[in-house]
Amino acid sequence: MVLFALMIAMLLAMLDNMIVGTAMPTIVGELGGLEHLSWVVTAYTLATAASTPIWGKLGDMYGRKGVFLTSIVIFLIGSALSGMAQDMGQLIGFRAVQGLGAGGLMVGVMAIIGDLIPPRERGKYQGMMAGVMAVAMIGGPLVGGTITDHLGWRWSFYINLPLGAIALIMVTAVLHLPKKRSQTRIDYVGATLLTVGITALVLITTWGGTEYDWLSSQIIGLGVLGVVALALFVAVERKVGEPVLPLHIFRNGNFSLVTVIGFLVGFVMFGSMTFLPLFQQTVQGASATNSGLLLLPMLLAMMVVSLFAGRVTTRTGKYKIFVVVGGGLITLGLTLLSLMDTDTTRFTSGAYMAVLGAGMGFLMQTTMLIAQNSVEMKDMGVGSSSATLFRTIGGSFGVAILGAIFTHQVQATMVERIGKAGEKMTSGGAQMDPKGLAQLPPMIKDAYMHAVATGTHHVFLWGAVISIAGFAAAWFLKEVPLRGGPATPAETPQTDRIAVAETV
Length: 504
Known about the structure:
This protein is an all-alpha fold. It contains 19 helices and no strands. α2 packs parallel to α4 (88-116).
């Protein structure tokens, strides 16, 4: 029952952006403010990323249950207010409130699971978590489109309220965790510096190459601000008694390695999720309405493999092999996807996506398991939040950098094929509505399809190159026994000594 409640909360956090993304054209049509459209997503992302490590630390200090319930309540308040927004400015502000709560949802779920279920037993539930992700990815756009068409865009936010209420009631009733009360003051200075640094990094990836040139004073200024804030943050964390992000957890080799691998997984995963539907809609002529279904081969493979890896990990206690194989499959899958062109069939692209999904299935939950097994129980919250944060920032960088590569290649191909007319067509961001594409003259349509195929080729090729670093890092992981399994010979004498001491 507890896990069911946690999965509902996890679904809330993952489903929201998928549903809202589908409703955005209707929202802009009613509220106006097209020039501020990107901030509806950016405000949510910024608040989520900046609050993630703080929620994790609060859970460690004051107990998971109260902090988790607070994050659900804030998320639901933000959802209700977003549904009542009367203009784009209000919607952006309320989305920030919603994102603030969302930052605690994912971290709360992972940390509570870390408290309740020993790492050795946690593999049994990996398929459940992967299934929630698949439901969100596939069902989000479909649910969002249906709600917007029949109930209105405001219900894309109100739909969170009954789901959140169920999670709130169930967690309150069935989750029993020991209460904590830390006498140490919260590290406000460290929290502020970390928030400023994360915000600067996310804004660089959001604005770079779109709102501002990469070498503009705004982007360079954000870069300097981010570096200075994070450098000061490290200095502060070394001195305070209860740091918001204890640096000692990074002394563990396995923890540092899985945060790097998690960053790279986020980088290539979110990049793939962004450009695969674009390729299939533009080049293969698929319907935008079914964009979630287009990812079904990848998501099903991810879910099945995650379930398999979890079961084997629980039975054997071995996990390094899955990280190594997962890293190799992600590199192979991205390499295969880079081979797609205008003649690639949906079956072939689906097979390539299945390879990539299998790689992600080996890595997604296994990396979180290793991160939680590498920290002490008192640091479970910050360990979970750090792993989540690095994956989120990796996703932001992946979408931004791969997006810049994609845009450049599309523009270059269009200019090469049809000259200055091609440059004008793609100067607004290198994307075109599939309906508008169908109305173009055959020569221009063919040129644009080739341009998108070329851009996608370079995106996945660079993704494959970057994923090699994650594959290499996986080989350096150490097979540390998972907590909750049978005691090893090395552990038995210590256990016996403790038992004798307690008896005396």
